[in-house]
Amino acid sequence: xxxxxxxxxxxxxxxxxxxxxxxxxxxxxxxxxxxxxxxxxxxxxxxxxxxxxxxxxxxxxxxxxxxxxxxxxxxxxxxxxxxxxxxxxxxxxxxxxxxxxxxxxxxxxxxxxxxxxxxxxxxxxxxxxxxxxxxxxxxxxxxxxxxxxxxxxxxxxxxxxxxxxxxxxxxxxxxxxxxxxxxxxxxxxxxxxxxxxxxxxxxxxxxxxxxxxxxxxxxxxxxxxxxxxxxxxxxxxxxxxxxx
Amino acid sequence: xxxxxxxxxxxxxxxxxxxxxxxxxxxxxxxxxxxxxxxxxxxxxxxxxxxxxxxxxxxxxxxxxxxxxxxxxxxxxxxxxxxxxxxxxxxxxxxxxxxxxxxxxxxxxxxxxxxxxxxxxxxxxxxxxxxxxxxxxxxxxxxxxxxxxxxxxxxxxxxxxxxxxxxxxxxxxxxxxxxxxxxxxxxxxxxxxxxxxxxx
Lengths: 244, 200
Fold this sequence. Notes:
The structure holds two protein chains of two kinds.
Chain A: H1 15-18, H2 22-39, H3 42-62, H4 66-91, H5 94-98, H6 101-107, H7 112-115, H8 117-141, H9 149-174, H10 181-207, H11 213-242
Helix pairs in contact in A: 2-8, 3-4, 3-8, 4-8, 4-9, 4-10, 8-9, 9-10, 9-11, 10-11
Chain B: E1 4-15, E2 18-29, E3 33-37, H1 44-52, E4 59-65, E5 69-72, H2 84-89, H3 100-109, H4 125-133, E6 143-147, H5 155-170, E7 174-178, E8 189-193
Parallel strand pairs in B: 3-7, 3-8, 5-6, 6-7
Antiparallel strand pairs in B: 1-2, 1-4
């Protein structure tokens, strides 16, 4: 059966594509994801509760000596932030994958690498940012000096964003896998190690009246690179998972 | 002048090691309505997804499609915790960028007036289906690829949808849908039985 193949399908008449407003689309999608997070507060509260519980458990396990806790506090705070971030990454794309939102997003007339950004922004605002801002309170429970709080907040703001970007790549790759949580952890935990080292290093320097800027600058460089590269990698991962 | 919105040339689709469909040729022109038929598992959904560009891995052959494709599948991309209106306003496909008035009108067209603020999770299966189909009453793509659009709809809902198909075809669009039941959309309907393309 022979058919006539159009040389070039005209697209002039599809006017709704001509005036597709990308900025508006991205804003609407960001709002959609924030509303979804607010509508199911567990997604926001659970990582914070996890953080709180682990921070409470450490003094019980290590003994209440404030000096000893203060030595360990930078490492504890960062490891817990890392694990809380892992929890968030495990859920990142699952709902959208299951209900078909991701394939609809793939049909949007913009590159998938741009289209996933609103989700990352919303996820970070609702998790990493809140966690960073309240972290000095958790720090106090471990005898972490309040004077070093700005460094704690700054390092966690950058660290959680970078971890979310890297974790997003793993989440995109494993979203189609049944119980892909362990696989995700295996994929991304090695990549978290440099962030963990730089982050806790910044805190140690801040606690010992040293200069945390080098470690913070490393995190900042990581975030800059991550913001550029991660969306592309996430889009590629989602294409694999969606079998596009 | 009728313009070709979708052309499928010698397309084969594999599922794992099995060839599902082979040698599918199809040209959908503006103003046409196509129904894909065939038994369960023959590959209707796979072909429709291939047409939408949502399954490139195991699809062989050439598929040319116009810009402005609307695909609606079994997974409706509706969020249970958002209202019907919010779901449509922020639909991730981005095909339409409707305002609140347009969305409310679209919901009224599918008999959901008064449910604009209702959380989709609280609606019945048929009502959810109607919310998903309300996309068709918004400014959307020219080529509609709809997987089982009549599922869970009542008799009246089916009529509304059929009327909308004809309206869309008359305004220069095209519809490809899968369904087991015959659709009453007048002389514009082309039925293609996928059994003839069954692979080995």
